[in-house]
Amino acid sequence: MDRVLDVEQRWPELFAGLEPGQRNAVVQSLAASWHEGWEPNQTDVANLVNFVTGVIDRAEFLRRSMANPQG
């Protein structure tokens, strides 16, 4: 497991348009999963960003999460 959760550095384009509260929600959610053993991948991060910003709804977020074998 990585020692530092560096999702913002790895995929800055995903965080570029987020408001501070949205950014915090995404990072905190990812950090909780990471501490439980999840390894960051671009697809999961993008899906969470899309959910937090309202691009996709909860049902679509869950569908994508279940469909991603890396997540």
Could you walk me through the main structural features you see in this protein, from its secondary elements to its overall organization?
- The protein has 71 residues and is mainly alpha-helical.
- The protein is built from five helices and no strands.
- Helix 3 crosses helix 4 and helix 4 runs antiparallel to helix 5.
- The longest helix has 16 residues.
- The two termini are 14 Å apart.
- The relative contact order is 0.17.
- The mean pLDDT is 93.
* Average of the residue pLDDT scores: 93
Structural class, from secondary structure content?
mainly alpha
**Beta-strand percentage range:** under 5%
- Computed over alpha carbons, the radius of gyration is 12 Å
Low-confidence stretches: none
Q: What is the overall number of helices?
A: 5
Could you tell me how far the N terminus lies from the C terminus, measured between alpha carbons in angstroms? 14 Å
